[in-house]
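Please predict the structure of the following assembly.
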Amino acid sequence: MNWRAIATIYAAEMARTSRTLFQSVVSPIISTSLYFVVFGSAIGSRITEVQGVSYGAFIVPGLIMLSLMTQGISNASFAIYFPKFIGTIYELLSAPISFVEVVTSYVGAAATKSAALGLIILATAELFVDVRIAHPFWMITFLALTTITFSLFGFIIGIWADNFEKLTIIPLLIVTPLTFLGGTFYSLDMLPPFWQKVTLANPVVYLVSGFRWSFYDTADVSVGVSLAMIGVFLAVCIGVVAWIFRTGYRLKN
Amino acid sequence: MTASVIDIAGLYKTYDNGFSALADVNLAIDRGEIFALLGPNGAGKTTLINTVCGIVTPTAGTIHVNGHDALRDFRAARACIGLVPQELTVEPFAKVAATTKFSRGLFGKPRDDAHIERVLRDLSLWDKRDNSNRELSGGMKRRVMIAKALSHQPDVLFLDEPTAGVDVELRRSMWNVVRGLRDRGVTIVLTTHYLEEAELMADRIGVIRDGHIALVDDKTALMDKLGQKRLTVRLSTPLDRVPDRLADYDLALAGDGHALVYTYGRDGDAPVRALFDDLSRAGVAWSDVDTDQSSLEEIFVDLIGRTDDTESSP
């Protein structure tokens, strides 16, 4: 293992964030604050409580989850797509490193960034509503697992994409709808029975539910199922990355 | 340590679409030499370099770098190699010094600011160290790529068309850089379209064609063996044919009979003096003499042409 190479790529990726600080950090904070204003204050004032929590506080875990997923994907997919697009990928391929180092460093940096962002959003939320965390250990566990899984997913998208359209099509057409329909802004029991069943097919439901449990001790589905689901998704992503590693898909011929 | 720094044996590369880019390439690069790889477009120059550097996976064959197998022991093998690819690709927003240090770290070498400074100074990039890559001219970007390749002190430097699209002045300074590197013991493998460049720089020359090495030789030996010299004698009075007395020489009339052209080998034992004696005996009056020698370019065209002939014959 070439640890120095991992540290080098990781540091370079983090430095890239500081160059695009506004885009990377400020804009998600602004959009999250907008969610609070629109959903928390304007609409939330008409909803009294959900599962024993004020609506404004209820949506906090969902909002953090939303940004962990979307930011994890966009950070990691862009980070690996960019060198492919401009051609500097040659350096990664000719360096004395294996794909393990490449994945560890890029996914690690993307996960760090989105996890930091999740914590910033949590701090921002504290300004609007009273957030309490019932199970801090599990909160961090869910946060870490989700951000790593979705950064891996983003990395796969970045490898697969050979143009900018492909880079954005999966987040836009699949991930965003799933997160919005995954109970970010509502509890499943607010839905008609038929749609409750349909929603259970959405993997995001399990992530949001489990994460919310770590805050307020209430969940739509059992915590064990939530953990199992994220474990499955993580395993699938690792499997695909391992396959890319073995075949050199879209990287080597 | 073996004598050759790179050893390629029985190397094949067939792409998924069936295109055979390399077919049975055998090549040894000597330690400390400048090796020029020549060949027409699409002959396999870049594929060969990329296969050695780990960007292309070979279909069959072995590559050893400093005795390390480039596939099984790829970390040790690649650590010895610096690569400057053909396309100008540098991260546009990174700064010159930072991107050079990045390459060093990527190759697992500990931070060494003194070495980075030396490399940047050698390439006249030190003044630009805090500039973003996108602010640099094309030639400067090429130097940044060389600096990145040298940042981890490689034993072998691959330069894929280092001077393509580079102006004369910059090309000359690039040549000086390459010579300086060789003087410090770095082995250099370069591909080029400018035969003048190979002629000026290389110790040995390899010609690759249709994915196989057509010829490898010492540059001077190659030019002696295949190159020719021409002696042009300007005549005071034009001739309508070569006098019989001079039939033993390889002579031809040129310029409507105003000049006699004598073609001979470069090895230095041509009977030039005897030719002039015989010219006087034959009563040929001349006013001026010119000599020139065939360039590597002519040898190359001749060689490629000859391979064409042999391949088209049954």
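Residues 309-314 of chain B have pLDDT under 50 and may be disordered. The interface with chain A takes residues 15-16, 53-57, 74-79, 81, 83, 85, 87, 89-94, 98, 102-103, 105-110, 148 of chain B (CB under 8 Å).
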